[in-house]
Amino acid sequence: MPKITYVQPSGSSETFEIPIGNSVMQGAVNNNVSGVPAECGGAAACATCLVYVAPEWVSRLPARQLLEESMLDNDDPKYAQLRLSCQVKVTEELDGLVVEVTAL
C-alpha cells in the first residue's frame, strides 16, 4: 500500500499506509489525523480537508477539476500547492506523498 505522510502545522508528522482508491482525506479520517475534519465527507463542498502538497509532488498529481478549483483561495501564497484532499485519489504512483495539514 502507498504511504502518505501528513505534516501538522507544528512540524510533527505521521505516515500511514493508505489503500489504493481511497482519497488522501479518507486516509486522514481513517487514521484520526488532526486538522482534517472533512465535514462534507468528500463531496468537495466545505474545504475542511485542505492540505498543502509538498512542492516536489505538485506536478505529479492529477490536475484540479473545476469543482475543486472553485473551492480554493487563489490569493493563498502557496496556491499551487493547495488541494482538497478529498479530490486526490491514492494510487501506487503517490507512494511517498507528503501533505501539510492547513491551520484552519
From TrEMBL:
<keyword id="KW-0479">Metal-binding</keyword>
<dbReference type="InterPro" id="IPR001041">
    <property type="entry name" value="2Fe-2S_ferredoxin-type"/>
</dbReference>
<protein>
    <submittedName>
        <fullName>(2Fe-2S) ferredoxin</fullName>
    </submittedName>
</protein>
<keyword id="KW-0411">Iron-sulfur</keyword>
<comment type="similarity">
    <text>Belongs to the adrenodoxin/putidaredoxin family.</text>
</comment>
<dbReference type="Pfam" id="PF00111">
    <property type="entry name" value="Fer2"/>
</dbReference>
<dbReference type="InterPro" id="IPR036010">
    <property type="entry name" value="2Fe-2S_ferredoxin-like_sf"/>
</dbReference>
<dbReference type="InterPro" id="IPR001055">
    <property type="entry name" value="Adrenodoxin-like"/>
</dbReference>
<feature type="domain" description="2Fe-2S ferredoxin-type">
    <location>
        <begin position="2"/>
        <end position="104"/>
    </location>
</feature>
<dbReference type="InterPro" id="IPR012675">
    <property type="entry name" value="Beta-grasp_dom_sf"/>
</dbReference>
<keyword id="KW-0408">Iron</keyword>
<keyword id="KW-0001">2Fe-2S</keyword>
